[in-house]
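The data are quoted verbatim for reference:
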Amino acid sequence: MFGSAVLDTDLVIRKKFLEDRDRIIGYKSGTNFANALGLTSQTAAVATIVTNNASAAKREVNIYKKRFIIRKSRVSVNKSNYKLLQVLDLLTNYEQYSEKPLEAVEENILAYLGDVSMSVREVKEYLSAYPTKTKLRVYELGLFDAIARRERVIH
């Protein structure tokens, strides 16, 4: 044991793909994020990370015998948008991740986004990077109005 350093896999992932000093540069996505929101009881053996710090659209990395899928983000990830981008990714592939109908998890999603507030222009800008089915789901859930309304009330 002397002379060998054992690094925590989560720490390596956080430093390399999720945070750069005090800046957020990525987020957890996929089945494990859906599980954290209570949308599925499943967990993925291979975690998915979406990050600004990706050299390709999608690649697989191994860190201390754990596999991760690293995806390049559709837009630049930061502290104010990462939660919304997580939800937009989830809504894009909703059938793949959730065991429940969208209406049944509306409260979970709105609660997760409870502290997210941005301008109508910002929300539209992020939505423009996603397919039409994602935009429709955002409007169905009332996410657009909830986030934009918060912004109007706060400022």
Observations:
- The helical segments are 9-18, 31-36, 82-92, 94-97, 106-112, 120-127, 132-141, 143-154.
- The first strand starts at residue 19 and ends at 20.
